[in-house]
Amino acid sequence: MINVNSAVITKQNRLATKGKKARVLEALSKGWTHTKAAEFAGCHRPHINYWRKSDPAFAQAFQEALEAGADVLEDAAFTRAVEGVIEDVYHQGRVVGQRVAYSDDMLKFLLAAARPEVYGRSKVEIQHSGSVDFTAMVQSAYQAAKRDGVLP
Description:
Helix content: 55-70%
Order of helices and strands: HHHHEEHHH
Structural class: mainly alpha
């Protein structure tokens, strides 16, 4: 005999899960974190990981949502760095005007990402051949400290 009530509950669960998955993808496409997306969808982060592993279509949509979210974040970074954002100017606790503020740090990040060979962190390589006599170095430092009166 078929239990109609359990069949209805299972269908409702699938619909609820489908809705939660859609909300997770919506949140991620806005650039939100996984935690914030789970909260927005009314689920827990482990659910998202389970869906990614068990549902290939969701896994693909998840990656696309992450890319869309990264684009949103890059656009926001560009706005702050290049176009600027309007900030209130305060004097003695009261707004007296507005100004356009730019983020030099954000501009550095964008340049480093766009042209890492020019603006990225440079790598320094130090090479040494021969030997280093640490005993002589320590003795020399000890004698200098003694001579300068730092040591008795």
